[in-house]
Amino acid sequence: MTIGSLAPAKEKKAGKSKQVADEKAPLLPLKQDEFEGELDGFNGASYAGAVFNLSTTVVGAGIMALPATMKVLGLGPGILMIIFMAFLTDASIEMLLRFSKAGKTVSYGGVMGEAFGKFGRILLQICVVINNVGVLIVYMIII
């Protein structure tokens, strides 16, 4: 006894087909007029909005991570670790800016492709996915 027919089922298509975004596209438009007709009712992201969004993300991650770090390491090593991470952050931002100017790239994927080739770009994308899954888990814990 079977449920349904034995004939192969036809594939159903989704309502809208989405276009694949170009991985070398800039995160923010270079000019306001570039995306006038493409986005329905969306005026585009501003630099102030991007800075605010990144700042709230960094502050939120710090609020979650710093107390646990200080508890595990203690006061002295915890403060030294914070200072060490500040130097690493400064060095990584400097390298990103240097490679983006040298390679004339405007996206993070483009910078990684210029600096480390195809496999470096793929490794970066895997790391971003792992990082996003970790952030989602933290947000679920908070909620």
From TrEMBL:
Keyword Secreted: no
Subcellular location: Membrane
TM spans (from-to): 45-66, 78-99, 119-142
Residue ranges, compositional bias (Basic and acidic residues): 9-20
Domain Amino acid transporter transmembrane, residue spans: 45-143
GO MF terms, alphabetically ordered: L-amino acid transmembrane transporter activity
Keywords annotated in UniProt: Amino-acid transport, Membrane, Transmembrane, Transmembrane helix, Transport
Top-level taxon of the source organism: Eukaryota
GO cellular component terms attached to this protein's record: organelle membrane
Chain positions covered by the region annotation Disordered: 1-20
Family statement drawn from the similarity comment of this UniProt entry: Belongs to the amino acid/polyamine transporter 2 family.
Protein name: Amino acid transporter transmembrane domain-containing protein
